[in-house]
Amino acid sequence: MVKYIFDKIRPGRGFAHAFHLSIIAILPPLILVLVRLDFNLIALAILLLSKWRMFALHPRHWIAHIRTNAVDIIASVSFLVFMASTSTMWIQIVWMILFEIWLLYIKPGTSVGMVSAQAVIANTLGLVSIFLALEGAILGAYVLAFWSISYFCARHFLNIFDERHGRLISSIWAFFAAAIMWVLGHWLLFVGPIAQPALLVSSLAFGFAGLYYLEQTDRLSSTIRQQIILTMFAIVFVIIVFSRWGDATV
Asked: Using CA atoms, how far apart are residues 118 and 127, in angstroms rounded to an integer?
């Protein structure tokens, strides 16, 4: 089903195909130029307008297309946020190159491995970038952002496996991620440049996604399962125990 939607919304020939390739080629450099000129809102508007293909088919498919393209929107906006968060040109260029890789190589993938990678990458980028995009916002805004990003990335991941309970599992995971943000938001800490809630949720998401992926592809042995679970516990332990709680702002 997911592969069918990908194939339908990706133009295969003619003017639409040429226009689509042109947007892919020029979008990251254009975003970089606008960010350098401090036209961040214009860059965001162009970024969102570039997703016009979601509405190219019958309106009854729009909701499904928005859900399918949510991870692309999350990742694309995240790259814009990262570019705008620094004034150092070479760092902005690095983010622009990574954006190109996302658009040209990662995003078009329709295999199980590539779709799984899309979900995990978008989840990580999105959770990290919201602390830059929403700096100074109320806690509720962060909680809502955590819920939305976690839900759409989980749905994107589970849909490729045709998971019957995908909506329920995604909702539970999104609630869990939002709850972590709500609790840790009262003691917001940073591990280097990354906020503790983003690091914690991203690490757990990567571990759970890895377990599910290996299980569904019949490559999950008891040894690998134990290694992944122990690694997840170790990461959570290090994040919690070695965080400088005394420097936290309540």
From this structure: 14
Phi, psi for 90 (deg, rounded to 5): -70, -35
Q: In this structure, are residues 119 and 209 in contact, taking their beta carbons and an 8 Å threshold?
A: yes
Tens-of-pLDDT digits for all 250 residues of the chain? 444 444 444 555 556 666 666 768 789 999 999 999 999 999 999 888 887 666 666 666 667 777 878 999 999 999 999 999 999 999 999 999 999 999 988 998 889 999 999 999 999 999 999 999 998 889 999 999 999 999 999 999 999 998 889 999 999 999 999 999 998 888 788 877 888 899 999 999 999 999 999 999 888 888 999 999 999 888 888 877 766 655 554 4
State the Cα–Cα distance between residues 2 and 241, nearest whole angstrom. Answer: 41
pTM for this prediction:
0.85
What distance lies between CA 197 and its chain's CA centroid? 15
Closest among 74, 98, 80, 93 to 42, alpha carbons compared: 80
Q: Which sequence spans correspond to the domains of the chain?
A: 1-109, 111-245
**Residue 200 near residue 184, CB atoms below 8 Å:** yes
**CA 157 – CA 40 distance, rounded (Å):** 30
The span from the first CA to the last CA of the chain, in angstroms, equals 46
Strand residue runs (E) in the chain: 190-191, 194-195
